[in-house]
Design goal:
mainly beta, Porin
Length: 172
């Protein structure tokens, strides 16, 4: 039993010696303007999402973001609160850039005009980190594929360059 405990302690120490925790956050802005036959509408969104995570090695990381998003859709304000854990895999490294894909699955709650609904959301989010030093990086990502389920209503989305987020990451 002592040998097993010692072996597990050494394994945890060796994993922790190579791993890095990080904290940071992102800001997101989205503006869509559409016009047809003389009528036009502008939908805009703003989000802020602090996040924290843990790099196991140069390839794999886990983390979570907690965010708030405000959308203006046809003069109606929609506020969304979400908790979104994710698994990140770095798949390419060029100079100071690491390119990654994230698989995220979490809970979100949307409210508008005193009414609210909650549900689950999932997404595939490609992005990059620009590692300016061992402790500081710039992070950018977007949502490529998304799925949501709110009170019996399913939503599936595919978008390129939609809801782009830009933020920072501090590693320690």
């Amino acid at each position: 039993m002592k040998k097993l405990f010692l072996l597990m302690a050494l394994a945890c120490i060796s994993i922790a010696a190579n791993a890095q925790a990080y904290v940071g956050g992102t800001l997101g802005i989205s503006v869509v303007h559409a016009s047809t036959d003389g009528a036009s509408a502008t939908n805009s969104a703003f989000s802020i999402a602090p996040e924290a995570g843990y790099y196991f090695n140069n390839t794999w990381a886990v983390g979570a973001s907690v965010g708030v998003q405000y959308q203006s859709i046809s003069d109606t304000g929609v506020t969304t609160f979400y908790v979104l854990p994710y698994v990140r895999a770095n798949f390419a490294h060029f100079s100071v850039f690491d390119f990654f894909g994230e698989l995220a699955l979490g809970y979100s709650h949307e409210s508008s005009d005193g009414y609210g609904t909650g549900g689950f959301t999932a997404g595939l989010r490609p992005g990059f980190t620009a590692n300016f030093s061992d402790q500081f990086a710039l992070v950018g990502r977007t949502t490529l594929l998304s799925y949501s389920h709110y009170d019996g209503v399913n939503g599936i989305g595919f978008a390129i360059n939609s809801n782009f987020e830009l933020g920072v990451q501090f590693k320690f």
